Amino acid sequence: MRFAGKRAVVTGGASGIGRATALRLVDEGAEVWIGDIDEAGGRDVAETSNGRIHFLRTDVTRTGDIEALMAAADAAGGLDVVFNNAGAGGSRARIDEISAEDWDRTQALLLRSVAMGIRHAAPLMTARGGGAIVNTASIAALQTGAAPTAYSVAKAGVLHLTTLAAAELSRHNIRVNAVCPGFITTNIFTSGLGIDGEKRDQANGMIAGIAAHAQPIQRAGRPEDIAAAVAYLASDDASFVTGTHITVDGGITIGPRHSW
Ligand code: NAD
Questions:
Q1: pTM assigned to the model
Q2: Among 63, 113, 186, which is best to mutate for testing ligand 1, by the most ligand atoms less than 8 A from CB?
Q3: Longest dimension (CA), the chain
């Protein structure tokens, strides 16, 4: 019960990593506000939580929405934890063909959203003496070949933003860290493809399953694997940890499993 009596915000909480993290924080005593553009998914998560999860329709590319989400949690007794996590694949265009508009849209969704999440959480946390912020980066921030360029650059930005914000906000007793997921079975691979239900679940499982063959730990990554790392970073167990990241990727960034 590391979050008993605490309030947390989770963006992208209607699905995947955000959903698993919201449920994990609630399991450990928190009351959670999830922000997402998926209203049906968001309401579904809220309904299964005995009133411990509140859903607020939030588009993280709209700064006013982020501000309102942080304010809602704060108004209920003070904002303690923020997980800036919402995202999607972004532009798949190569660097020699991408348009300025696609570039900007991807950065707004994946990087500016995190900057604005920190921007609007920090003053509220400062006012109550501190807090913990965790941002979702990716193994795409650490190496080539994991995701398209615009996405990977945004995630590398999230990592550097995390270290800079940690340095700036330490004087207010606010810790800022990131998590770098590897291939995790969620809807991110299939969102926008127009497939639903069983077919979508099969496709989601297949992609993380294929990646697993190249990993030292040869199973598909689960949203709960990331939720556990986020819960650690957000908790007082990590009270001496700031400006860094945890990679949760089945070992894929260290190279293939050795056969000798
Ligand atoms: P997911 O599709 O299951 O969940 C993402 C959630 O973000 C969805 O509920 C979606 O509706 C929401 N979202 C998308 N755009 C939004 C917007 N503009 N405003 C608010 N909400 C929005 O995918 P996921 O894998 O759980 O993704 C969560 C985070 O993890 C993302 O930042 C993603 O880049 C990152 N990530 C995922 C993986 C992976 O393999 N699944 C790997 C590395 C990083």
A1: 0.98
A2: 186
A3: 57
